[in-house]
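Checked the freezer inventory, then went back to the computational side. Two predictions to log before the end of the day. The first one is the construct we discussed on Monday; recording sequence and tokens without edits.
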Amino acid sequence: MRKEILDALRTKFPGVSEAILGRIADKLSKTATTAEQVATAVEGVTIQQVIDSYGDSRATEAQQTAVSN
């Protein structure tokens, strides 16, 4: 289901990084198991959630860089 979710997210949010959408798809794929659930889950994703996911990924990356330095 992850691929279907990712495809739907790409359609809904064109131009957004694949890595960010992939993180959201990973989370949604844990609960959405049918095509109907995929459509409902993706429909519920807001641009704010995409922005938050990006912020989380940047914070994690910064923390890992700080620890390695």
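The second is the one RB wanted added to the comparison set:
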Amino acid sequence: MRFKFLQLWRNIDWWLLGSAAALAIFGLLLIYSLTGSPERLFLKQLLFVGLGLGLVFFVQGFDKHFWRNASLVFYVVTVLVLAGLLFFGATTRGIRGWLYLGPIAIQPAEFAKIALVLFLATTLEKLNFDIANAKHLFLVLLVVGLPAGLAAAQPDFGSAFVMAVVSAVMILYTGLDKQKFIILILGGLLLAAFAWFGFLQDYQKNRILTFINPQADPLGAGYNVRQAMVAVGSGGLTGRGLGLGTQSQLNFLPEQETDFIFAALAEELGFLGGAAVLILYLIMMRRIYLLIKASEDLFTNFMLLGIMGIFLTQSVINIGMNMGIFPVTGITLPFVSYGGSSLLVSFFALGLAQTARQS
């Protein structure tokens, strides 16, 4: 046991773990500053940070071969839970995507992202995937479509979009010539058209239209984006100080501890605080990229690419929507936003990435 613990300790990428821990500390500081009942929300987030750090070591205790073998079970269980949510799930902010176990709320769509990455990595490796092979393409689209489609049906289009983007990145890693690229683009356009006319509800279409023209409805659909942009712009170089942001403290900024936490960070900690967070994400991406370069098996490469895709997609979209660059999607900022499910899944992914250092 002592030998195994020492082996795990030596395999930890401290730059990767340290950057995630530093982001979590930023999140704790902001949640304490922003919430009207800091004792309750801050202590809950602190508890989940502690559980998350423990989860990194727990996940790392099982090697990558275990996670490859367990990927099918993890995937099937997640898909069944997502299907059950459509009938038995609790509704929050218009999304039937929550399970309540006593006082604890769980969002299975967050866990579905990791389940999809693991099983898709296993599938792509076993198939030696070729996008021009109709059978391969059908199987992979089925693997991606089940959890993404069930998430979209809740309707949680933010999680579904992340799953689709991350899956596309993993598929692109298999190699792409001109013909395959055209097939992928046409498929993406058809999927976008199908989603617009068949799935998207009016308020979701309004978010996209507001992204194109935020001034069209400044007190309605465009309000969140305008307030976030005001908060980001008012922070200046060093910010107003923790607890001193006017937009955030006076509740002009909506969903300030979750979706718009970066805007609150920019207002209270300024450009320097925002830059520090971006640098921490860059360190994290760089470390995962180095793990990909060092890996010698396809499953690990696909898995790491999927994990990197989740962190990169969510951080870019969340920060982008806080700055008015992307539509509001309800995607959280990894390790920073308030939320137990999002935080635990982020640390779970971090533990999986650490398994790449094992032989």
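For RB: The first strand starts at residue 90 and ends at 92. The CA atoms of residues 111 and 345 lie 6 Å apart. Let me know if you want it refolded.
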